[in-house]
Design goal:
The protein starts with a strand and ends in a 10-residue tail after the last strand. The longest helix is centred in the N-terminal third of the chain and has 17 residues, at 32-48. Mean pLDDT is 93; it is low at 1-11 and 255-260. The chain has 9 helices and 11 strands. The protein has helices at 32-48, 69-77, 92-101, 108-122, 127-132, 135-145, 148-156, 184-189, 228-231, and strands spanning 3-6, 20-25, 53-58, 85-88, 161-163, 166-168, 204-207, 216-218, 221-223, 233-240, 243-250. Helix 1 (32-48) links the parallel strand 2 (20-25) and strand 3 (53-58). It folds into 2 domains: 3-63 and 73-80 and 160-250, Metallo-dependent phosphatases (Purple Acid Phosphatase, chain A, domain 2, 4-Layer Sandwich); 92-156, no CATH class. The chain has a 6-stranded mixed beta sheet. It has a 5-stranded mixed beta sheet with strand order 5-6-7-9-8, with no helix packed on it.
Length: 260
């Protein structure tokens, strides 16, 4: 069964492009169990809704905090839903790992405290041992453990993706700044003033990065990070035309409740 929560679909609501159905997944953070269950529910939901081209979007922070970062990357980069176009965005956690792989050992100590330790363990490394090494030695050990295919995947991640009247980003945008002038720092790291700003951004911004108990809509933004690594809930926002709905999986289980 699938947990569905339906948003209002009044005529003023933004629309996705004709003929497409998108599923937008929030921050996975190394929870392969939740991701696999949610992908299963998405596949079932897509089949039940009838013909449409499928788009799967992952909003970044696939890695860190949870126990299976390495396997989550492998799952996402290897056609997780047959027949779907897949777009994966870079979150702030991918940004930091890629910086370390590119030689920035000075970011290692802080990364280990906000999820990097779990990511290293998923690649077979002892994070305590890595933390005791000199930065350049630690970087070399991490480079040797992370497959080149994973590094190339991290380098290929998108910064944002436009879908009709929607803009998908990891963290948000800087209010009042044109979309084309947004910085990577804001796209991957911003919280305020974005979260409390209710103005019309010209698009509906769908984002992760900031945890909430449920998927929330505020002004012209929708937050989809329901704290998978801490709460056991991983969520996806479905979009087709003017319709929006939410699929949740909770600790690998799914329930069926609908709200209009």
């Amino acid at each position: 069964m699938v947990f569905r929560r339906l948003f209002s679909t009044a005529s003023a609501e933004p629309r996705g492009p004709e003929g497409w159905r998108a599923y937008v997944i929030g921050d996975v953070h190394g929870r392969l169990d939740l991701l696999d269950r949610l992908l299963y529910e998405i596949e079932r939901d897509h089949e039940a809704r009838g013909p449409a081209k499928g788009l799967l979007v992952l909003l970044g922070d696939l890695i860190d905090r949870g126990p299976q970062s390495a396997v989550v990357i492998e799952r996402v980069r290897s056609a997780p839903l047959p027949g779907f176009r897949v777009v994966a965005l870079a979150g702030n956690h991918e940004e930091v790992l890629l910086a370390i792989l590119n030689g920035n050992g000075e970011r290692l100590a802080s990364w280990l405290t906000f999820g990097g330790a779990e990511a290293l363990a998923s690649y077979g490394l002892d994070p305590d041992e890595i933390g005791r090494l000199a930065p350049d030695q630690a970087v070399e050990r991490i480079r040797a453990a992370v497959p080149e295919t994973h590094r190339r995947f991290l380098e290929s991640l998108a910064d944002s993706f436009r879908f009709g009247d929607y803009l998908f980003v990891h963290a948000g945008i800087r209010p009042g700044v044109p979309i084309e002038a947004q910085t990577l720092q804001d796209l991957r790291w911003i919280r305020e003033p974005f979260l409390s700003d209710s103005r019309d951004h010209g698009v509906t911004v769908v984002h992760g990065h900031t945890m909430t108990e449920r998927v929330v809509a505020h002004g012209s933004r929708i937050g989809v990070d329901t704290g998978a690594y801490a709460s056991g809930r991983l969520s996806a926002l479905g979009i087709e035309g003017a319709e929006r709905w939410v699929l949740d999986t909770i600790d690998g289980r799914a329930a069926s409740i609908a709200h209009v």
